[in-house]
Amino acid sequence: MSEHTGKVIVITGGASGIGKETALQLSAQGATIVVADFNEEGAKQVATEIEATGGTAGAYKVDVSKGDEIKALIDWTVEKYGTFNGIFNNAGIGLVKPFLEMDPESYHKVIDVDQHSVYYGMYYGAKKMVELNVRGTIVNTASIYGSVAAVGSFNYNAAKAAVVMMSKSGALELAEHGIRVLGVAPGFIETPILGNDKAMKDALATQHMRGELIQPEKVASVVTFLFSDAANAMNGTTVAVDDGFLS
Ligand code: NAI
């Protein structure tokens, strides 16, 4: 039996990048995965890929910035798979603008998708686990930019710093229910969120100790570990997968 056999785990942003690779790795270790994403086609493709290798996965279209949709996602998961053992609150966007052009719409857009979504996933996820008497795990995607300011990223910096603190605060209150809350803070990961500007990506890569962008599989393997019982002495912390950027 694999480490995650019998667990049902929801992954937001599961259609692409870090979420997709985490879906593949957790399912390879036995977990049933709900691939939740705004991109319904992409989510279906990942679920199909998992099922083709003998795993179990479902796709669900969700806008993570809407609390009622996250609640419905978790209810659907329990209805379809009978239980719910964890959520990877990972969907996110960037919207880079100089601060003096950071109008309320641009600010709120990123706060809604990158920060409020994490609260919704934690709140509805933890309530469901308590209701089901499940001792589960919540992992939230933060960023190195939750600790370090970046030009043009006021909205993103604010959201990701909040996610780091939400993981600590949630862990503190949910420990008595046997629910762990953890975070992951990726460095510069080679996914579509970085865009197609090669010069910009090369410049980001030089900020890593090895001088390369990090592959999403590397973040996924850390997240897969955080969901495991082997990590049960870890709680509240956000683990950097940044090739030394923050060091
Ligand atoms: P990605 O662009 O490959 O994946 C993000 C996924 O989130 C996409 O499938 C997209 O459809 C989904 N999504 C976006 N808005 C959504 C919404 N409102 N509702 C539901 N789904 C939505 O990017 P990546 O890199 O895999 O990003 C995952 C997380 O990692 C994000 O939270 C991002 O901020 C974070 N991150 C990424 C870094 C990088 O360099 N790639 C660095 C640090 C953090």
UniProtKB/TrEMBL annotation:
What Pfam families does the record tag this protein with?
adh_short_C2 (PF13561)
* Gene3D superfamilies per UniProt: NAD(P)-binding Rossmann-like Domain
Write down the InterPro entries for this protein, in alphabetical order: NAD(P)-bd_dom_sf, Sc_DH/Rdtase_CS, SDR, SDR_fam
Superkingdom as given in the UniProt entry = Bacteria
**PROSITE patterns in the cross-refs:** ADH_SHORT (PS00061)
Task: Return the similarity comment.
Answer: Belongs to the short-chain dehydrogenases/reductases (SDR) family.
Q: What is this protein called?
A: SDR family oxidoreductase
